[in-house]
Amino acid sequence: MKRVSIITINYNQHRVTEELLRSVFDTNTYNEVEIIVVDNASTINPVPDWKKQFPSVRFIRSEKNLGFAGGNNLGIEQATGDYFFLVNNDTEFTAGLIQTLVDVLENNARIGIVSPKIKYFDKPAMLQYAGFTPMNYFTARNKCIGQFATDNAQFDYLTGPTGFAHGAAMMIRKEVTAKAGLMAENFFLYYEEMDWCERIKRSGYEVWVCMQAVIYHKESVSVGKTSALKEYFMNRNRLLFLRKNANVLHNIVFYIYFSLIIVPRNLIRYIMDGNPGYIPVFMRAIWWNIFHNKNSNNLGYQLN
After folding, report:
1. pLDDT (tens digit per residue) in 210-243
2. Half-sphere exposure for 22 (CA within 13 Å, toward CB)
């Protein structure tokens, strides 16, 4: 039996992380599992208390906030599994989740990474993710299939290759991380899993969604549904993703589209939504990409 390392990141959300751990213990029947929680420099260190509550779980405390990519990479580097199951701490497991994903990987050696069907925790009949369409590199846009639809199994036929895995839950082969590398840590937050999927595909593997495995997602617990932090990294990393993965023609067309459509649209939206303070945040995201190398580890953002 292949060993699965469940890896999750905590940042100032210890109660949410505890709910995830309890859901794993309550639903999982797969025997070869290790659970790793990386605490990303939370203001109050929850690890000593956690060790008492969950003695079978391995806790790693980082004294620096490494972001989504860096925190997961730290967990992967210390994991012992054949498969790494990276899950957001604001998810909750369902029965058979791990076994179903393992079976998919075991039955097809071409699959490098697979995500389950994702549904909203507070609206359990509603889909969040049933796969992604491929990226349109001229506009840096793609679609999340099934999002906000009531799940009547109408998308279950989509089990198979998809545009991208979903960062909230993705199981990857250990051997794939050796060939494609770990997530690029200079994304810090957002788009890192999409960049990773593109590198995984270039390494000769397929990216899949498995609609027979289900996980529930509370979404945006750590950074909030809207925040300056989210606005900065979503915009900065959209540009960075293009710089890392698109060809010259795609980049030229995209920058024209971005300048003529996206910039004025966002500026108007910030004003109309009563968030004029996001304007300098948005502009800083653009300037970062103008003045920094695509592999720069300078985040350009002061973290609290």
Report:
1. 999 999 999 754 445 678 999 999 999 999 999 9
2. 8
Entry pTM: 0.94
Which runs of E-coded beta strand occur in 11-163?
A: 33-40, 58-62, 83-87, 91-92, 111-120, 127-129, 160-161
Of 47, 37, 23, 165, the C-alpha closest to 98 is 23
3-state secondary structure of 119: strand
φ, ψ at 38 (rounded to 5°): -100, 120
Burial of 52 from C-beta contacts in 10 A (0-12 / 13-18 / 19+): exposed
**CATH code assigned to 4-217:** 3.90.550.10
For residue 183, give the DSSP letter.
Answer: -
Contact 154, 126 (CB under 8 A): no
* Cα–Cα dist 42/18, whole Å: 14
Any idea which residue has 């293009």 for tokens?
242
For residues 189 and 175, give the distance between their C-alpha atoms in angstroms, rounded to a whole number.
24
Contacts 24+ apart (CB under 8 A), 23-30: 23/92, 23/93, 24/93, 26/93, 27/93, 27/94, 27/95, 27/97, 28/93, 28/97, 28/98, 29/95, 29/96, 29/99, 30/4, 30/98, 30/99, 30/102
Q: Collect all residues with Cβ–Cβ distance below 8 Å to 89 and sequence separation of at least 6.
A: 8, 9, 10, 13, 16, 17, 20, 37, 221, 222
pLDDT digits (tens, 9 = 90+) for 107-162: 999 999 999 999 999 999 999 999 999 999 999 999 999 999 999 999 999 999 99
